[in-house]
Design a protein that fits this description.
Elements lengths: L1 H18 L3 H5 L2 E8 L8 H11 L4 E15 L2 E19 L4 E19 L2 E17 L27
Parallel strand pairs: 1-5
Antiparallel strand pairs: 2-3, 3-4, 4-5
Length: 165
Protein backbone atom coordinates (compact mmCIF):
# COMPACT_ATOMS: atom_id res chain seq x y z
CA UNK A 1 0.00 0.00 0.00
CA UNK A 2 2.91 2.38 0.65
CA UNK A 3 3.96 2.16 -3.02
CA UNK A 4 0.43 2.91 -4.20
CA UNK A 5 0.24 5.95 -1.91
CA UNK A 6 3.55 7.22 -3.32
CA UNK A 7 2.20 6.85 -6.87
CA UNK A 8 -0.91 8.83 -5.86
CA UNK A 9 1.37 11.59 -4.55
CA UNK A 10 3.34 11.47 -7.81
CA UNK A 11 0.19 12.15 -9.84
CA UNK A 12 -0.93 14.86 -7.44
CA UNK A 13 2.41 16.60 -7.91
CA UNK A 14 2.02 16.27 -11.69
CA UNK A 15 -1.22 18.29 -11.62
CA UNK A 16 0.02 20.78 -9.02
CA UNK A 17 3.35 21.43 -10.76
CA UNK A 18 1.58 22.18 -14.06
CA UNK A 19 -0.92 24.57 -12.48
CA UNK A 20 1.71 26.31 -10.35
CA UNK A 21 4.24 26.51 -13.23
CA UNK A 22 6.93 24.48 -11.44
CA UNK A 23 8.50 23.21 -14.66
CA UNK A 24 11.79 22.01 -13.16
CA UNK A 25 9.94 19.95 -10.58
CA UNK A 26 7.60 18.59 -13.24
CA UNK A 27 10.58 17.31 -15.28
CA UNK A 28 11.71 15.25 -12.27
CA UNK A 29 8.49 13.22 -12.30
CA UNK A 30 9.37 11.36 -15.51
CA UNK A 31 11.85 8.58 -16.23
CA UNK A 32 14.59 9.44 -18.72
CA UNK A 33 12.94 7.22 -21.35
CA UNK A 34 9.30 8.22 -20.75
CA UNK A 35 6.91 7.58 -23.62
CA UNK A 36 3.97 9.96 -24.15
CA UNK A 37 0.85 9.40 -26.26
CA UNK A 38 -2.37 11.29 -26.94
CA UNK A 39 -1.03 14.79 -26.40
CA UNK A 40 -1.08 17.57 -28.99
CA UNK A 41 2.33 18.40 -27.58
CA UNK A 42 4.96 16.37 -29.35
CA UNK A 43 8.00 15.48 -27.35
CA UNK A 44 10.58 12.74 -27.42
CA UNK A 45 11.19 12.81 -23.66
CA UNK A 46 10.02 14.39 -20.41
CA UNK A 47 12.21 17.47 -20.83
CA UNK A 48 10.93 18.18 -24.34
CA UNK A 49 7.36 17.59 -23.20
CA UNK A 50 7.68 19.96 -20.25
CA UNK A 51 9.43 22.66 -22.32
CA UNK A 52 6.67 22.52 -24.95
CA UNK A 53 3.97 22.49 -22.26
CA UNK A 54 5.49 25.58 -20.59
CA UNK A 55 5.61 27.38 -23.93
CA UNK A 56 2.03 26.49 -24.88
CA UNK A 57 0.61 27.39 -21.46
CA UNK A 58 2.37 30.75 -21.23
CA UNK A 59 -0.20 33.29 -20.02
CA UNK A 60 -2.88 30.65 -19.48
CA UNK A 61 -4.86 29.92 -16.34
CA UNK A 62 -5.06 26.16 -15.84
CA UNK A 63 -6.79 23.64 -13.61
CA UNK A 64 -5.79 19.97 -13.79
CA UNK A 65 -7.47 17.37 -11.59
CA UNK A 66 -7.14 13.61 -11.42
CA UNK A 67 -9.56 11.36 -9.54
CA UNK A 68 -10.44 7.78 -8.68
CA UNK A 69 -7.08 6.11 -9.30
CA UNK A 70 -6.86 2.44 -10.10
CA UNK A 71 -3.26 1.39 -9.43
CA UNK A 72 -1.71 -2.03 -9.34
CA UNK A 73 1.84 -3.16 -8.77
CA UNK A 74 3.14 -5.21 -11.71
CA UNK A 75 6.58 -6.02 -10.30
CA UNK A 76 9.03 -5.04 -7.59
CA UNK A 77 9.86 -1.78 -9.44
CA UNK A 78 6.86 -1.32 -11.71
CA UNK A 79 3.19 -0.42 -11.57
CA UNK A 80 0.40 0.74 -13.84
CA UNK A 81 -2.66 2.83 -13.33
CA UNK A 82 -5.56 4.75 -14.78
CA UNK A 83 -6.92 8.07 -13.54
CA UNK A 84 -10.10 9.93 -14.39
CA UNK A 85 -9.07 13.47 -15.32
CA UNK A 86 -10.44 16.95 -15.91
CA UNK A 87 -8.64 19.95 -17.30
CA UNK A 88 -9.67 23.54 -17.86
CA UNK A 89 -7.33 25.88 -19.69
CA UNK A 90 -7.96 29.50 -20.66
CA UNK A 91 -5.74 32.00 -22.46
CA UNK A 92 -6.13 35.81 -22.55
CA UNK A 93 -6.10 35.60 -26.37
CA UNK A 94 -7.44 33.26 -29.08
CA UNK A 95 -5.42 30.14 -29.87
CA UNK A 96 -5.70 27.35 -32.39
CA UNK A 97 -6.63 24.03 -30.85
CA UNK A 98 -6.33 20.68 -32.55
CA UNK A 99 -10.04 20.66 -33.39
CA UNK A 100 -10.97 24.34 -33.29
CA UNK A 101 -9.40 27.62 -34.38
CA UNK A 102 -9.74 30.86 -32.41
CA UNK A 103 -10.72 29.40 -29.04
CA UNK A 104 -9.75 31.18 -25.82
CA UNK A 105 -9.59 27.91 -23.91
CA UNK A 106 -11.07 24.49 -23.41
CA UNK A 107 -12.64 22.15 -20.90
CA UNK A 108 -11.92 18.46 -21.15
CA UNK A 109 -12.36 15.15 -19.38
CA UNK A 110 -10.91 11.73 -19.96
CA UNK A 111 -8.38 9.33 -18.53
CA UNK A 112 -4.65 9.06 -18.03
CA UNK A 113 -3.34 5.55 -18.64
CA UNK A 114 0.10 5.23 -17.09
CA UNK A 115 3.01 2.98 -16.23
CA UNK A 116 5.37 3.78 -13.39
CA UNK A 117 8.90 2.75 -12.54
CA UNK A 118 10.68 2.90 -9.19
CA UNK A 119 13.82 4.85 -10.10
CA UNK A 120 16.50 5.66 -7.48
CA UNK A 121 13.96 5.11 -4.70
CA UNK A 122 11.32 7.38 -6.30
CA UNK A 123 8.32 6.45 -8.38
CA UNK A 124 8.34 8.16 -11.78
CA UNK A 125 6.07 8.15 -14.81
CA UNK A 126 7.50 5.87 -17.53
CA UNK A 127 4.50 5.94 -19.88
CA UNK A 128 1.55 8.34 -20.03
CA UNK A 129 -1.36 8.25 -22.46
CA UNK A 130 -4.02 10.97 -22.35
CA UNK A 131 -7.43 9.89 -23.55
CA UNK A 132 -10.47 12.15 -23.88
CA UNK A 133 -14.14 11.59 -23.18
CA UNK A 134 -15.06 15.26 -23.56
CA UNK A 135 -13.37 18.27 -25.13
CA UNK A 136 -15.15 21.60 -25.37
CA UNK A 137 -13.56 24.70 -26.88
CA UNK A 138 -14.34 27.91 -25.01
CA UNK A 139 -14.95 31.13 -26.87
CA UNK A 140 -14.49 34.15 -24.65
CA UNK A 141 -15.40 31.95 -21.68
CA UNK A 142 -18.87 31.48 -20.31
CA UNK A 143 -18.91 33.99 -17.48
CA UNK A 144 -20.75 37.13 -16.42
CA UNK A 145 -20.06 40.33 -18.30
CA UNK A 146 -17.06 42.18 -16.94
CA UNK A 147 -15.57 39.23 -15.05
CA UNK A 148 -11.85 39.00 -15.80
CA UNK A 149 -10.09 35.77 -14.75
CA UNK A 150 -6.76 37.31 -15.79
CA UNK A 151 -7.03 40.18 -13.31
CA UNK A 152 -5.65 38.05 -10.49
CA UNK A 153 -7.00 35.82 -7.77
CA UNK A 154 -8.95 38.58 -6.04
CA UNK A 155 -8.27 37.64 -2.43
CA UNK A 156 -7.99 33.87 -2.87
CA UNK A 157 -4.96 32.19 -1.36
CA UNK A 158 -2.59 31.00 -4.09
CA UNK A 159 -1.05 27.52 -3.83
CA UNK A 160 2.18 27.21 -1.90
CA UNK A 161 5.12 26.22 -4.08
CA UNK A 162 6.74 24.32 -1.19
CA UNK A 163 3.80 22.48 0.37
CA UNK A 164 4.60 18.76 0.74
CA UNK A 165 7.51 18.83 -1.71
Amino acid sequence: MAHIEEIKRLKSRYCRFIDSRQWDRLRELFTAEVRLEGFTIIGGNGTTFVDDLARRLKGAITAHQCHTPEIRLTGANSAEGVWAMMDLIEWPHPVDLKTFSGATGFYGTGFYEERYHLDDGRWRIAFMRLTRTRFEPLINGARPSGFDVFAGLGGFTPPSRDWMC
